[in-house]
Amino acid sequence: MKNGRIIVPIPRVTLDIGFPDTCQKFSFKDSSIHARAEVVAKVFKHNSPIRIGGIWELKVPHSVGAFYLTLLADQMIGININAENLIERKFFRHYTWDMMVVGFSRDPMDWFPKPRWEMAGRDDILADLAEFLKNDLGDFRSAEFDSEGGFRV
Description:
By secondary structure, the protein is of the alpha+beta class. Helix content is 16%, strand content 39%. It has one domain.
């Protein structure tokens, strides 16, 4: 996770994204949409760069290429001490933050609402085009272009 030049290691993220099936747009005006993230950040003891209201970018790896979620820090839930080894216990803390998803670069995993034409899929669009081309277009006049750049009907 990063904010400008500040990079924070994230050992664990839990996303909670929900919207009704009829939703076609990711908008904050719609109260039925919720997109939150619970982020555990590993930072130096007493030196967390994450603040309430801060905007952070979370890189999400995917097989077709990584994409980014834009997060707004909402509230700190807790601080945990990792007791795996002495150095971790002495110098690092795991801060758990509740964050709101406020944007994304792209959506290859279909986590967010999409417009109806995008939800229909490519096969439906091609089937509609084939249906249109099969139908009789009716009587119409065509235009022919001549060698001088003009056209005649």
